[in-house]
Amino acid sequence: MDPNFLKYAEQSAPRYTSYPTAPHFNASVDGGVYRGWLGELPADASLSLYLHTPYCREMCWYCGCHAFAVKRDEPVAQFVEAIQAEIDAAAVATAARRVTEIHWGGGTPNSLSPERFEAIATRLAQRFDLSACERHAVEIDPRLLTPEHVAAMARIGVNRASLGVQDLDEAVQRAIGRVQPFEQVRDAVDMLRAGGIKALSFDLMYGLPHQTLESVRRTAQLALSLQPARFSVFGYAHVPWFKTRQRLIDSAALPDASARHALAEALRETLAGAGYVEIGYDHYARAEDPIAVAAKGGALQRNFQGFVESTCDALIGFGPSAISTLPQGYAQNAAEVGAWRAAVMESGFAVKRGRGLTENDRLRRDLIMRLLCDFELDLADRGGLAAFPEALPELRALAADGLVELSDDRITIPQIGRAFARLAAQAFDAYRDTGSARHSLAV
Fold this sequence. Notes:
Blueprint lengths: L2 H7 L21 H9 L6 E8 L1 E2 L11 E2 L4 H20 L4 E9 L7 H14 L7 E6 L6 H10 L3 E7 L3 H7 L5 H13 L4 E8 L6 H12 L5 E6 L21 H17 L3 E3 L3 E3 L4 H7 L4 E3 L2 E3 L5 E5 L4 E4 L2 E5 L3 H11 L3 E6 L2 H16 L1 E3 L13 H9 L4 E2 L3 E3 L8 H6 L17
Parallel strand pairs: 1-4, 1-13, 2-3, 4-5, 5-6, 6-7, 7-8
Antiparallel strand pairs: 8-10, 9-10, 11-12, 14-15, 15-16, 17-19, 18-19
């Protein structure tokens, strides 16, 4: 790595799936505020629904999600009962019904039995209008997928699946607590396609222990042999102070900042060399895929699912830790499953914290989103760069090292700087110097 770049690779920055970011949420938003926000949605509003499944069969050590291993049946049954009650409460609170997309995340959605998975989906269909739903996606652990799961997903209209692949090297898999041979991934892909679910995405990770340039290239090539429509490529965020399960990972085996950047570049070169279009700074897709079309047309968006090709008037989240995005702001549920369930069963809502948006927040959110989605930002209608004097020192430093290009009214991030795009976006973050949040490395 160029020595001038190393200093940037060692810096941290938010992923900006929201703005303000989640560490700046507070208790000013509770269930009552959220209920009021839902009530203000117009009847013709388009909705995106997110369902967070908090459980996994076993925990992967690298995981930074709000997820918990469970062996007993009772907690899972209680979760299903509570999320159905939460769906009921949201439907009562809002006149909006038209759903255009659904996303199941976790945790591991397919840790639920097919019957319970379908029961939750049935409640959604009873309470909301799913007739216009274009995108119905589910995150999948290939190790747990069965033909019965696929049949249930097909019945409820799932048309997209995201498979957690991460890495296909056995030594790396042992080091992160997720042993998953290539054959399991291939069999899951075959099951999904046979069931009619053909829009597939793979998650890959770099920055894991014992990864080498050769091993990540081999992982990418094996994954490419299965021909998914998309890839999401994430840098492993080692945050053991936040997720104690990560203490099981040998930190001495983790690559340093320079090696992380080289691993990311190896994955980028392999995927781009196979014809996949780079989307944002961590997604790749076939040129005909809707997300690639959106990126080419300047319509790419970013939310808690990452880079997406569409936007809705509101995103309603269900389940522990789920975050809802409404015109008025963000609302996040209690993360602990017991607290979430108790609140839902008592009042229908379990919102614990959130953030109402100011006009300045909305402006800066748009600037950050467009910069991360388009790698350029036109400020001519916003007073030019001079209107954001606090951002200039950082942007000029990045420009001096060739990571951004500046004019009076425009910021452009060249190919060489795209891996560091979050640092450029951070220059517009009015909250970056407040609070005590610790973020993942910028690369």
